[in-house]
């Protein structure tokens, strides 16, 4: 704040007498949401600045060597890590980022590594993958698929009995080793082709700590039927949506107003946006920018109470229309006139739970129904995995209508435990199930053997 303490006080809604009084604070002690977000930017930026110094110094000493910035976790603020900033810094020094958080579950593994992968691809850094611990043989198969199809240069694994087994005085491949040996000729750097992006929100706000597990569960399950990149505010501002057709914004309590403006312009240029679960505010607590995108206005009001859901247009949401006893706990009235209702309450059809609206050449789909993905004994209603059904149905209708710029080749709306990825070397298909699976691709039926990877 070069204009002085008065400018900071006005922006932060604070009352500091001088900059000497400004000290680090916990979320509950932050004077405003903007103060908290700018504190996080400084906190993470300090670690990024150190990474910049570290990589710059190492590059001076090792001008021609591969250099990796080793980072981990899931970008929780207390870690101080900012994956897109770290990838940007690594690219500046002709270096890479090695993410050390892999898991055995393939969908979860994608969720954990994809922020680094997406940012590195965009900024021009290279990537290495390392598991947080040992992984199962099926996990190793998924790791191979993930690393190759995201464009990674390095795949680290621990020397465990699953990889190498001592037998008769010599080492032979274990089950994980068999996967590595089987696909060793495919371990080459590819260029991924991904049309879908998911906005990676800051899971911590000043007043609440968003449940990272809810977001993690949702995006992990989304990978079961479409491949995606992650984008955050930095990537969006730098143009990472340019080659995307679909953007999913889920559970984002706070989004910088400038980011929302760029998303809206991208939608007007033909993008398809899904907003789920939150009426996001900007750093100053205002919903103006988000409302203009999602279809709210100053008269919009939230209605709460358990009510039965009615599908207003069954042809648009066939998998939800086929369900019985679908309930919700909230909806909205007083939306913008161009909002076309998709889900409403039986109690009052004016209470809309989901809708769509045209935005320039693009479409915005909004969903504020139940976000449950798992069934627990204490749940008060049946979890139909409605947000997944909503996105799947809407994507299918957009494909049928021809309003998506290009049908995502990784879209898989039928086969369980089968994952597709598109690269410059073709279509890759992973089956982690114990049985073979068949999928339809371009009018052709393809059989994928149990626990295998095939290429087309």
Question: What does it look like?
Answer:
The chain is of the alpha/beta class. The chain has twelve helices and 20 strands. The chain has helices spanning 5-12, 33-61, 83-92, 106-123, 137-149, 175-182, 212-222, 233-237, 257-268, 288-294, 318-321, 386-401; strands at residues 68-71, 96-102, 126-131, 154-155, 164-167, 170-173, 196-199, 229-231, 246-250, 272-276, 301-311, 327-333, 340-345, 352-359, 362-367, 418-423, 426-431, 437-441, 444-448, 452-455. β18 (437-441) and β19 (444-448) form a beta hairpin. α4 packs across α7. It is globular, with a radius of gyration of 23 Å.
Please give the structural blueprint.
Blueprint: H1 5-12, H2 33-61, E1 68-71, H3 83-92, E2 96-102, H4 106-123, E3 126-131, H5 137-149, E4 154-155, E5 164-167, E6 170-173, H6 175-182, E7 196-199, H7 212-222, E8 229-231, H8 233-237, E9 246-250, H9 257-268, E10 272-276, H10 288-294, E11 301-311, H11 318-321, E12 327-333, E13 340-345, E14 352-359, E15 362-367, H12 386-401, E16 418-423, E17 426-431, E18 437-441, E19 444-448, E20 452-455
Parallel strand pairs: 1-2, 2-3, 3-4, 7-8, 7-9, 9-10, 10-15
Antiparallel strand pairs: 5-6, 11-12, 11-13, 13-14, 14-15, 16-17, 17-20, 18-19
The mean pLDDT is: 93
The spatial strand order of the largest sheet comes to 8-7-9-10-15-14-13-11-12
Low-confidence blocks of residues: none
Compute the number of strand runs: 20
Overall, the morphology is globular
Helical percent range? 25-40%
Find the structural class using helix and strand composition.
alpha/beta
Strand content: 15-25%
Task: Enumerate how many helices there are, as a single number.
Answer: 12
What is the alpha-carbon Rg in Å?
23 Å
In whole angstroms, the N-to-C terminal distance is: 55 Å
Largest sheet: 9 strands, mixed
